């Protein structure tokens, strides 16, 4: 069944695809400022700890279920169900997950379009096309709609080629490009005046701030969301793995790469902010706190790049190119969730499913743009604050309580015959059964209470 559906041809291809799904815009411009505002290096330590307490176990739940079923989330949860009720609940969970993934992609495409437009604006500035550069950074429906369509066409084009020729091939190209671009930007920014002050803010610990209950809940949320958990993206990628792969090892590599990129981004964003401060650009709000992520990405950093002249325009193009890659590697996993469902549950061809579903999501994005003030924040809140945690909770319940323990062990033994004697098997089944659901409910309660 797996080969007919498509399959990752190499471990490297899966790691690049799964890490690409996890590494998104939030890792690069959300995580660093959150760390700097909440204890610096102490927050990093808390985040790293919680990533392996919560994110890695839930990631493993999705990958194991997916590889066992070699099916989309609806079919996979139905396969491990024990009776009619859990089969219906599993089907409902899978369908809600694909709807949530689609709505996440609908607002993600808008933000990703902004990134592409800013990248092209910098190139236009280098070419002396000032009017074009100004239009590319204007907040107009025409500009926004145009680049939503451009971004969605890129995403649709990759997914239409399938698992090996589309997802794996392009992830294996884009992720190394992302790493090289990010590393190059870090090395350059660290040479600029003011960078060391930002580096100190990022790396010097303030344990009193980092150990507050509020911050720990925030770090839990960051760890959970950083790996694209809860909507079935990792489940569907797991379903394209062959049965010989060692799943705990693969999950650890994906988690480690995702966290490493988020931490590395901190070495770019925080020094860049203080370089901006050194150049006279304000980075603090009226309360004396570091500015929010959206203000940073679209106001502060562009002002910094402008203040640097020709070098700044080149640096801006490179930075927004990096952001565009991060967005694209995430978007292809989101689109694959509903596409896989349409192919497997309704017999659609891949190309027709991709075009139809991609077109519907593009339409949703345009609808959000037409009612931006009312819908943009609402869609983000409904999907990421409420939808993802609840769906992640259900995945944990299925992996920890509903799926028979002997069948779960048999699945893990396919790629790791000695798994029963490892520390992973001694800890993970009980951890995903008890600890992860409680932590996810804590995230949800915090979001609910504001």
Automatic annotation (TrEMBL):
Primary site of residence: membrane
Segments crossing the lipid bilayer: 12-29, 41-59, 96-117, 145-163, 175-195, 215-237, 249-277, 308-332, 353-380, 386-403, 423-445
Pfam family, one: SNF
CDD domains registered for this protein in UniProt: SLC6sbd_Tyt1-Like
Signal peptide: none
SUPFAM superfamilies with a match to the protein in the record: SNF-like
Compartments where located: Membrane
Source organism, top-level taxon: Bacteria
Membrane topology of the entry: Multi-pass membrane protein
Keyword field: Membrane, Transmembrane, Transmembrane helix, Transport
Any GO CC annotation of this UniProt entry: membrane
PANTHER family: TRANSPORTER
NCBIfam families cross-referenced by the UniProt entry: Na_transp
Protein name per its UniProtKB record: Sodium-dependent transporter
Species of the source: Pseudohaliea rubra DSM 19751
């Amino acid at each position: 069944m797996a080969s007919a559906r498509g399959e990752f041809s190499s471990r490297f291809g899966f790691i690049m695809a799964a890490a690409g799904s996890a590494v998104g815009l939030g890792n690069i411009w959300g995580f660093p400022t959150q760390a700097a505002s909440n204890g610096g290096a102490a927050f990093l330590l808390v985040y790293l700890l919680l990533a392996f307490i919560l994110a890695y176990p839930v990631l493993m739940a999705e990958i194991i279920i997916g590889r066992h079923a070699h099916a989309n989330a609806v079919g996979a949860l139905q396969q491990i169900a024990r009776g009619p009720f859990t089969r219906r609940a599993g089907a409902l969970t899978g369908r809600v997950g694909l709807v949530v993934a689609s709505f996440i992609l609908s607002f993600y495409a808008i933000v990703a379009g902004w990134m592409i437009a800013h990248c092209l604006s910098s190139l236009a500035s280098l070419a002396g096309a000032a009017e074009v550069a100004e239009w590319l950074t204007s907040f107009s429906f025409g500009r926004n709609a145009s680049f939503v369509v451009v971004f969605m066409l890129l995403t649709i084009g990759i997914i239409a080629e399938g698992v090996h020729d589309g997802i794996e091939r392009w992830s294996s190209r884009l992720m190394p490009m992302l790493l090289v671009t990010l590393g190059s930007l870090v090395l350059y920014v660290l040479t600029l005046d003011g960078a060391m002050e930002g580096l100190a803010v990022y790396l010097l610990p303030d344990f009193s701030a980092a150990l507050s209950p509020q911050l720990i809940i925030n770090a839990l949320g960051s760890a959970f969301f950083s790996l694209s958990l809860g909507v079935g993206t990792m489940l569907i990628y797991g379903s394209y793995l062959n049965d010989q792969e060692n799943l705990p090892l693969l999950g650890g590599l994906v988690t480690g790469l995702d966290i490493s990129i988020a931490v590395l981004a901190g070495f770019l964003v925080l020094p860049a902010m203080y370089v901006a401060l050194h150049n006279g650009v304000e980075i603090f709000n009226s309360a004396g706190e570091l500015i929010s992520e959206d203000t940073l990405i679209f106001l502060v950093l562009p002002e910094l790049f402008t203040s640097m002249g020709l070098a700044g325009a080149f640096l801006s193009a490179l930075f927004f190119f990096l952001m565009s890659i991060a967005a694209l590697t995430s978007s292809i996993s989101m689109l694959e969730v509903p596409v896989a469902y349409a192919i497997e549950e309704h017999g659609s061809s891949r190309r027709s499913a991709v075009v139809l579903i991609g077109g519907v999501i593009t339409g949703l994005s345009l609808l959000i743009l037409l009612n931006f003030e009312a819908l943009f924040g609402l869609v983000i809140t409904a999907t990421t604050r409420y939808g993802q945690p609840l769906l992640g909770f259900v995945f944990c319940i299925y992996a920890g309580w509903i799926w028979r323990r002997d069948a779960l062990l048999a699945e893990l033994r396919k790629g790791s015959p000695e798994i029963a004697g490892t520390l992973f098997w001694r800890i993970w089944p009980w951890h995903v059964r008890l600890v992860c659901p409680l932590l996810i409910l804590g995230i949800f309660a915090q979001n609910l209470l504001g």
